[in-house]
Amino acid sequence: MANNGNDQFLRGFLLGGIVGGILALLYAPKSGKETREEIKRRSKELWDDMDEQLQEVRKEAERIIEEGKKEAERLREEAERRLEEARKKAEELIETGKSTLESVRSEAESKLEETKGKAEEAVQKGKESVKKGASRIKEAVSKGVKAYKEEVQEEAASDSGKK
Fold first, then answer.
1. How far apart are CA 47 and CA 17, in angstroms?
2. Helix/strand/coil for 156
3. Using CA atoms, how far apart are residues 111 and 118, in angstroms rounded to an integer?
4. What is the C-alpha to C-alpha distance for residues 158 and 163, in angstroms, rounded to an integer?
5. Other CB atoms closer than 10 Å to residue 50's CB: what's the count?
């Protein structure tokens, strides 16, 4: 953008020099030789001024290029810094995730073992309860059979006494 302003200035300067030179020739009451020398002198001045302006434009362009290089380097360094920060945060998140996963896995294994233990305990209590129930049923059946036999014997004895 600065070059555009310098270009316009240079164009304006050249145009002004040319117009000024033409006007000076038209209104100067000098001889042909004096006029040619005047044109030569003014051309040299104009050339020198253009050369000076060109040098200034080159210096400005070099300065702008150098600033651009510095800014590009700064931006590259900033991008590298941010990339490194992002990489570190990603590593931290991965480690946190691994730690959390390990903690959850460990807790799940613990709960599984606890539940397994409770289930085994419940199965054992169920077996004991079934054994007790089976013993009671056997005892009840045995008593029922004994009572039945006694009743049958009593009926048989009472029937044989009636005859």
1. 10
2. helix
3. 10
4. 9
5. 14
DSSP letter assigned to residue 10: H
Tokens, residue 125: 């209590």
> Within 13 Å of residue 128, how many CA atoms lie on the same side as its CB?
6
**Domains of the chain: which residue ranges?**
2-162
Give pairs for 106-112: CB < 8 Å, separation 24+: none
Tokens 């316009």 belong to which residue? 8
Structure tokens of 38?
């005047």
Beta-carbon contacts of residue 60 (< 8 Å; ≥ 6 apart): 2, 3, 6
Q: Dump pLDDT digits (tens) for 34-83.
A: 777 877 888 888 888 888 888 988 999 999 999 999 999 999 999 999 99
Q: How far apart are CA 14 and CA 10, in angstroms?
A: 6
Q: How far is CA 36 from CA 19, 31, 48, 162, in A?
A: 16, 9, 18, 179
State pTM to two decimals.
0.42
Length of the chain measured in residues:
163
Q: Which of these, 12, 24, 13, lies nearest to 47 by C-alpha position? A: 13
Q: What are phi and psi of 29, to 5 degrees?
A: -90, 70
As a whole number of Å, the end-to-end CA separation of the chain is 142
Of the candidates 38, 8, 16, which has an alpha carbon nearest to the alpha carbon of residue 26? Answer: 38
